[in-house]
Structure formats: C-alpha cells, structure tokens
Amino acid sequence: MSDQDLRGRPVDALTPEEAATELEALAKEIAGHDIAYHQHDAPTVSDAEYDALRRRNAELETLYPELIRPDSPSAKVGAAPAGGFRKIRHAIPMLSLGNAFTPEDVHDFLSSVRSFIKELRDDPERPVAIMAEPKIDGLSCSLRYEKGRFVQAATRGDGSEGEDVTANVKTIKDVPQRLNGDAPDILEIRGEVYMDRSDFAALNARRAEAGEPIFANPRNSAAGSLRQLDPSITASRPLRFFGYTWGEVSEPLGKTIVDIRKRFSGWGFRLNEPSRLCHSAEELLAYYDEIGAMRSSLPFDIDGVVYKVDRLDWQERLGFVSRAPRWATAHKFKAEQAQTVLKAIDIQVGRTGSLTPVARLEPITVGGVVVSNATLHNEDEIKRKDVRIGDTVVVQRAGDVIPQIVQVILERRPEGTVEYVFPDHCPECGSLAVREEGGAIRRCTGGLICPAQAVERLRHFVSRNAFDIEGLGDKHIRAFHADGLIRTPGDIFRLEEKDKASLTPLRNREGWGPKSAQKLFEAIETRRTIPLDRAIYALGIRQVGEATAKLLARHYGSFAAWRAGMEAAQDRDSEAWRDLTAIDQIGPSVADDLLAFFAEEHNRTVLDDLAAQLTVQDFVRSRATSSAVAGKTVVFTGTLETMTRPEAKARAEALGAKVAGSVSGKTDYLVVGADAGSKAAKARELGVTTLTEPEWIELIGGAGA
Ligand code: IVH
C-alpha cells in the first residue's frame, strides 16, 4: 500500500506497522514544509493543510506512544501554533492605556490634561469634551483596508509587531470585507475581537459535550479562537468585532472622536456602546457608575470604561508617555473577589534578589478564572494583614494583574495557627537575606552565586522588551543554567559555538531536534545587533525600566559613552555625576542604583563580554536627528505664553532635544518666559545662549512643529 493510500484512512484504521510508516512519512513531510516556511519564507502548503498534517501526527502518537519517533514533529519547540503566524510590523505602534481606579485618579487625569493644554489651564471654566466608552475585555486587532477593501489583520503582539491573522479575521461577520461609502485609500481600523457571553457559554457547553477542554472566560475563548492555524476553526467560533480607534491612515479622518465614530459606523463597523460625550469629572464618574450598574446585563464582558479627549488636535499635542497616551485613560471596575484557604506561603527570589512571598491557595474561581496562587507583596504586608497558613482569605483579581490577598477572615481562623515568620535567609542559596534601611523588601545577598537571581537576570535579558530571543523560554534558561551552558548573558551568544564542541549537543536533547536547535541559534544571531535602549534595559539594573533606559540612551547616545559616563560618575564630585543627575526624571536614587551596578566587578566583566559580542546601535532620535535642536540640552524657565511647561517639554523631546531642570555647562539653550528667576543670571554667567519664547518657537520650526 502506498503512503498516499494510508493518508486517506482514519488513524484508528491503521495497523501498528502502517502507523509507523505513516509517522515516518509525516515527520519527513512536515519537516519539509517547516524548511520551506521558516527558512525559505515560501510555504508549500496552506496553513490549514499543514495544521491537518500535524494533527494527524499527534493523533497517531496518542494511539501509539511506543511509535513516537526521535524526530517527531510534535517534539519541536517553537513550532505551530506559536510559530505558525507570519509577523506583521505595525506602521503605527499599538499602545496601551494608563489606568484610573478611584474618582481621585479620574480628577487627576482631567487635571493633567488641563494643565498640559494652555487654553484649558488659563480658562478653568472652559469645559473639555471627553468621550467615554465601555472597555471591552477581548483582544485588540488592527484591520487594514486599501481602497476600501479588507487586506490584512494583525494582532497587537508586543505593540510594534503582531501576528498575521488575516485569514481568521476574514471569517468574522462583523468585519466588513468592503467598506460602504467613501474611505481613505489607506485605513487601519483598530478595535477589539471578542465573544459575547452567551456565545461563550454555548461554545463551552458544546466543547464539554465533545470532551474537549473548556475555556476559562470569553476573553480566553476569543483569543484561542482567533489564533487558530486553521481558519475554518475560527469560522466556527462566534467572534465579534468593535472598532474604536485607528492606525495608519492616508488622510485625516475628522476633527473629533464624535466625527470619527460616525464615519466608522457609516463604513459598516459596530461601535462599542453605550458611549457618552462628557464635559466634567462628575459626568465621567456618573457614566462610570451607570455602566458599572449595567455591567452584568451587557451582552459582553467589560473590565472598565475608557475616557478619551474628544478633540484630535489636542490629542496630538498631548501625545504619549512611554507606551500610553496622555489623552486617554482606562477607568477600571473594582476587582472580583472570592474566599478560599491559604495552604502555604512560598518565597520566590527575583532578579535583584528580592524575596517575594507567594500564597498557595485552595483553587477557587474568581471572576471566571481559576486562581491557585496570589501575591502577598512583602514581609510587612503579611504582618499587617496577619496572614497565617490555614487561614481563610479574600482573594481578588482585576484584569490582567496577579491575584492578590485582600484580607483574612478572622472568624474562620482555625485553632493552633501561628504567626508567619519571614525567612532571613535565601531559600534558594542559603545566603543571608537583609532589608535595606527604610525599605520593605528583603533581599538575598548572594548576588550571582544565587542560582535564582542568575536565572531571573537571564530571563529578563532575553525577555520580550529586552533581547527578545524567540525560543529561549524560562524552561530552557533554567536547564541551560543548570547545565552550565549559559551562566552569563554573553554565554547566550556563544551557545552555538559551545554546542558544536559539546558531547550532548542540543539537537539530541529531549524536546529538541536539529531544526529547533538551528532555529534557536538563528534567533540568537539576529539579536547580535541591538538598539542601545534595549541593551541598557536588558541588563536588569534596579529601577532601570524601559522608560529610564530610553532616557539614558537618549542622553548618552552610544554604549561606549554611557559606560564611560557611568564609570566617571562614581566620583560624586565629578561633572559626570552632575551630568547624570541633571537628566530630567533621573533622581539620586536611580543614579545610586546605576552606580552600584557599575561598581561591581562582575557586572563590568559582563559588559566587556557583551561589548565584544554585540553591535549596540547608537540611539536614533525619532523624527528628529534633522531638527535644529536634536541632541541639544534645553532648560525652560519662567512662564511661557503659548504653551504650558509640560507641553513645551514634550515637544522639545519629540524633536530630539534633552530637557534639563537646571542650567549647567552642558546647557545649549535657556528658554526664558515671563518672570524668569535666577536661571537667567546663571546662564549669562556660563555664557549659555538665552532665547525668548518666540525665538525658541522659530528655532523648532513654528508653533505646529
Ligand atoms: S482606545 C492608545 N478604546 O484596552 C490606545 N481601547 O488597556 C487606544 N480597549 O489595547 C486604545 N476597549 O485593547 C480603546 N473603547 C476602547 C477600548 C480599548 C478596550 C483595549 C485595547 C487597548 C487596551 C488598553
């Protein structure tokens, strides 16, 4: 019987001999398709056919575990479905939203808008229109239309790069294939793919009936349904879509959100309703309460509401802070709570040695998700709440955040419990764990002799916003560290070389094959060149998150300049120290952590090693290397006429300038508004160029720059 005849028969109709032949054929075939897809970027079969082959392979392996081949396609890490979608770079990044939890946060949001836009700051009576909309709990997706035709859909991914889910989104009935009426030639509609609660319940009932695993909640169900390699599976799932914002467009869509929502609707999109145009914090809070009250009767899950400044020209001026707009915020609903029993407290050791207590719970469903772990934050929190093993506790879960223990139900405390004693030694390496003065966190003093810290640092190093090495997951880092294959970041870039010399090369290890090993080496190779801010962030220096890493990259420009600056700044009387602490938003505490990192011999060795392995790209200033103020250091003083200080600062930075808080020898321009104080005198003394506000505006190319 030929292989082709075997292929036509159901798996359970094959004899063991035939199954073995079929498994061999499948392994060969799938490997061939993998090479065509991953290495030549030229798939030889459709995703659906490929998926069917893999499914058949998996079914046969379930029936005949003894026939599983060493080169089984199922054993390959990073293969479908995670690796099955093509990546799409977003022309305009898909960002997230800041959060508000309390009425006070909402007032703060509005005041920050008012104090940014001068017209609003100067006229406290002038109302500002804010669009309020439900915040649907699904997955965001960007749909691209060209000349009114749907051409592509991408998931959010990390915000810069998502996955190509075009074939799947095509099956969603709410997504128009052609737009009604007049649409710009290029139009990206962004919104949420989600599932109605009733559809979700029916789907789960069908799955339970068929003996298939059920989804935890509508959001997971929508995510699982969208990320199917076989679009016919997606088509069978009741997915829906709301449009609420946009990405790349070839012409402006309107002047306000109100206008644009009308256009969305005219093109054939459903809108997230009930929305309301509000004009004060009181109106926003009333809307929040009303939506909260109808939450359980809405057909879909929401986790809050979103507030957006209605005027687009103001949105543009307000701009963004790191990954979230200043012109919008998400007002979240109160978390869902449930009661359960605390079975144990485990201590986890983090990247910087912090000991974090984790509560192990009797599993309980909170807001549709099964929770069995929760954070207890730190030693003081446990004390303050007097949490004891055996206690019944209130667990809460809000959105994506880690579940928390809110309180203990004292009436239900069993006899004989004892107060929890926080360990003063690291549970991983036995080193002393100490609290710094005034701090709440106890840290392991073992540094890199502590395997937990070393592994956490490596995990951070390869994580998504750092080196982003695909295929090098937690499990692998842990195993490579234990085997001594990867001990420092530099070792990652020697992995292939070491592997060649190894008696047990990766390809022969469990869970690996020649292809997955090769894929990992390739993923590592592509990251040998890395932008400066990512490289800084990846080092995992305390308090140096993405935003701070960017500030440092912008300020120093190159890896070498940054290092030289940090080493020179060890002397706190130096110009280098003043230069570092003059960077706006870098306070003495962050500076201390940076210097502490550089003071350690071990860290300097790691940096030398990395410098030899990598090409760290100099910081590229956005839209701005060409601007007249790119790379210049500017100080603002006095009251400006045409804009507020936050807006002046944001605009200068968008043009590649650095804004400092005080005048020094490094200052290029001092921009002087009305009632300027001592800074003007200091600038004169140091010979710094002083500009009036109109001169500054002219220098940056006009008011609209
Ligand atoms: S506007 C710059 N409006 O919430 C980002 N987002 O937490 C503009 N979301 O990534 C987003 N409902 O996936 C916007 N009415 C709504 C939304 C909404 C849900 C999601 C979206 C976003 C996430 C941020």
TrEMBL record:
Similarity remark: Belongs to the NAD-dependent DNA ligase family. LigA subfamily.
Annotated EC: 6.5.1.2
Reactions listed under catalytic activity: NAD(+) + (deoxyribonucleotide)n-3'-hydroxyl + 5'-phospho-(deoxyribonucleotide)m = (deoxyribonucleotide)n+m + AMP + beta-nicotinamide D-nucleotide
Active-site feature positions: K135 (n6-amp-lysine intermediate)
GO biological process: one example: DNA repair
Binding annotation for Zn(2+): C426, C429, C450
Organism encoding this protein: Inquilinus limosus
PANTHER family xref list: CHROMOSOME TRANSMISSION FIDELITY FACTOR 18 (PTHR23389), DNA LIGASE (PTHR23389:SF9)
Record-level GO cellular component terms: cytosol
Molecular-function annotations in GO: DNA ligase (NAD+) activity; metal ion binding
Protein name: DNA ligase
Amino-acid positions noted as binding NAD(+) in the UniProt annotation, renumbered to this chain: D47, A48, E49, Y50, D51, S96, L97, E133, R156, E192, K308, K332
NCBIfam families the record matches: dnlj, PRK07956.1
Keyword NAD: yes
Annotated keywords: DNA damage, DNA repair, DNA replication, Ligase, Magnesium, Manganese, Metal-binding, NAD, Zinc
Cofactor list: Mg(2+); Mn(2+)
